[in-house]
Amino acid sequence: MPSKTLRSATFLTALLVPASALALPEGEGRELVQGVCGSCHGTSVIERSSGYSREDWRYLTSTMLDLSNNEEGQDKILDYLASTFPPSTNRASTQVRGPLTLRFEEWQVPTLGQRSRDPVEAPDGSIWWVGQWRDILGRLNPQTGEMEEFRLPAGAKPHSVSIGPNGMAWYTGNRNATIGRFDPATKTITEFPMPDKTARDPHTAEFDANGTLWFSLQGSNMIGRLDPETGEVRLVRSPRPNSRPYGVKIAADGIIWVACNGANCLLRIDPDTMEVTEITLPEKGTTVRRLDIDADGDIWWVNSGLGRLGRYRPAKGEITEWASPSGPRSHPYAIAIFDGAVWYNESGVRPDMLVRFDPETETFQSWPIPSGPIHAGILRHMRTTLDRQALLIHQSGTNNIARVTVVRDQAIP
Hints:
Keywords: Signal. This is Cytochrome C. Residues 1-23 form the signal peptide. The chain has two domains: 4-84, no CATH class; 101-407, YVTN repeat-like/Quinoprotein amine dehydrogenase (Methylamine Dehydrogenase, Chain H). It is 12% helix and 38% strand. It has five helices and 28 strands. The chain has helices at residues 4-16, 30-37, 44-47, 54-62, 71-84; strands at 101-108, 116-121, 127-131, 136-140, 147-151, 158-163, 169-173, 178-183, 188-193, 202-207, 213-217, 222-226, 233-237, 245-250, 256-260, 265-269, 276-280, 288-293, 299-303, 308-313, 318-323, 332-338, 341-346, 353-358, 363-368, 383-384, 391-395, 400-407. The chain has a four-stranded antiparallel β-sheet, with no helix packed on it. The protein has a four-stranded antiparallel β-sheet with strand order 2-3-4-5, with no helix packed on it. A four-stranded antiparallel β-sheet has the order 6-7-8-9, with no helix packed on it. The chain starts with a helix and ends in a 6-residue tail after the last strand.
């Protein structure tokens, strides 16, 4: 939680912002909102919201910072937000109802404003996450609700966390060009720097069956491999300029598949030679945040740029797409194969929708993702628990992580 000194400095900063620098609409309290909210994120985030009531704005801001020491300032901020950005349908999602019921279990992480994300389960049942904006690695005991947070090297800005075969937590240092290893027993951190100065932003990582860590470097346009035994890091470039490698998944045959967030392609990496092959997707405007692989070896991917769900069948070279329920601007983001279906979210609409697609019937069902008593977004990555009985998701805008299960033949408690 921000210190009183930091909060006071933030309010002082708000008073020093020149009116000419403000992008928000006119209104009393605009300068304060620009200074307080804009000190952590762009005000365009506020303008892109669907709007909230005053009480809902109170809850949403409380998930980001503590304003209780300045009641007058807090009232001005809430009055401005509620009057300028009331509830609206400017980004309304399209919900598809169906037969399944879900249970959402939520936990709000201790340090506000950290942008908690990418929860993953360890073999002992604990759930780990990273707080990208505050250089935090966290651990949750879902049975008791107890949470611990560990400080990572300043400026690491961890983007994702994975659990290695030996139970250690590995994170991607997205801003300090490292892969980090955290030992839960000793609380020690070992950093593995990138061997190339142009490899600046490790992004998403996954372990293969041999315990090798594969990772993307989005802005650097690279894919990397780290051998935990030797610490050796090898890098290769994507053959497609500005393809922005993003999501990573590893097939049962050992092939590494990477999504292209900057181009209409998927990348196939040979685990032995690290040769990269591009699979070009049909339409320009296609961008792919993430992907997953089903039991048949088919690659499922979100077409974030065009608002679709896609499937690539490597054995046949066949590509099929389905329009997402909320339309071309729905910006599908995270994706996972779970409970015999394909699950993803629509991050470009409000509420942020969790969508289930049944490949057998080619039908959808969707649910608004809660952020406490409101719907605020955004889900950026999802994975299943180790027993594949639940989805682990998050809402980085409200510093929540959550576990989702399908309720069968029983009432929700």
